[in-house]
Write a structure and sequence with these properties.
307 residues; alpha/beta; 3-stranded parallel sheet; 9 strands; 13% strand; globular; hydrolase activity, acting on carbon-nitrogen (but not peptide) bonds; Chitooligosaccharide deacetylase
Length: 307
């Protein structure tokens, strides 16, 4: 049996990358970046604020953290709501104590349901990042482009109106994208997105609707991944963050400023027995005096000015 000719035909087969979304650029070959006050490492903290409807979407998949038992799954629903009612306020207190401004990817539905929470975040000087409508509003291959455009527009319009911020960043629910997502985000005027995890530094992506910066949004140091999925304890969580910082600190001496990203989940790290671990590790980073803490927009802008 021979393969059909079209099986061996791929229009993008060529030397180098097989797409035009971004250029192949090894991290260690790039021009060095200098952060403000010549700090060695930029610290970018994101805190995901998500609304999981009690009735999950029917397809094509459920976002991580969604309901697991038959309706009504109050156990999972209230666990997620704990993060938005309790855990987030412990995190905000830690950030305030240490003088750290974070980026908050927020579902538009949550901003509408918890206006006092949104107000406290904005008053604290944190950046709101668009995170679609809710955790049922997924982006996936093959979805209707008009439906996807509507989800993006509704999220941006709601968050911009309620927060008073311009909203320049985007994180998709489950960090899932369709083949049209990047172009739709550029079309909507967003400056950066943080769904891709293939780099440690920002880089430019090209779409037929314009350019958009990709910000590194690692899952490897995420609290939910380490503490829940992998079942590690808080000491190991702290050690891995400090090891990553040590690596970036050393690389910065020959390759310029580096970026350490930490994604926090309020219903995980906001638990009373874990919040001290977060405070201790962030204090260790701050005490190094080699850290520049900033929002995603600030880091992206500083990086972009040097390209």
């Amino acid at each position: 049996m021979t393969l059909p000719k079209n099986y061996l035909t791929y229009e993008n087969r060529r030397h180098g990358m097989d797409h035009d979304l971004y250029s192949f650029s090894p991290l260690f070959d790039r021009a060095p970046v200098t952060w403000p006050s010549s700090k060695k490492v930029a610290l970018w903290i994101t805190v995901a604020l998500e609304y999981f409807p009690l009735v999950p979407n029917e397809g094509p998949f459920k976002a991580p953290g969604h309901m697991v038992t038959p309706y009504p799954d109050y156990r999972t629903y209230t666990t997620r709501d704990y993060g938005n009612r309790v855990g987030i306020f412990r995190i905000l207190k830690v950030l305030e104590t240490l003088g750290i401004k974070a980026s908050i990817p927020m579902n538009a539905a949550l901003a509408e349901r918890y206006p006092s929470l949104l107000s406290e975040i904005v008053a604290g000087g944190h950046e709101i990042v668009a995170h679609s409508i809710d955790m049922n509003s997924l982006h996936y291959g093959g979805m209707d482009i008009d439906v996807e455009r509507s989800q993006i527009t509704q999220s941006l319009d709601t968050l911009r109106t309620l927060s008073g911020q311009s909203i320049t960043g985007w994180v998709s629910p489950a960090r899932s994208q369709s083949e049209n997502t990047l172009a739709l985000l550029a079309e909507a005027g967003l400056a950066y997105q943080a769904d891709w995890v293939n780099d440690d530094m920002p880089y430019v992506m090209k779409t037929d609707k314009g350019k958009i910066v990709s910000m590194p949004h690692t899952m490897e140091l995420e609290d939910r991944h380490l503490l829940v999925n992998l079942g590690q304890n808080e000491d190991v969580y702290q050690e891995q963050i400090l090891e990553a910082f040590d690596c970036f600190q050393k690389e910065s001496s020959s390759h310029g400023g580096r970026l350490l990203h930490l994604n926090l989940t309020p219903y995980v790290i906001g638990q009373p027995w874990r919040i001290q671990a977060l405070k201790q590790v962030l204090k260790s980073l701050i005490d190094s005096n080699d850290i520049w803490t900033a929002t995603g927009h600030e880091i992206m802008s500083c990086w972009k000015e040097q390209q």
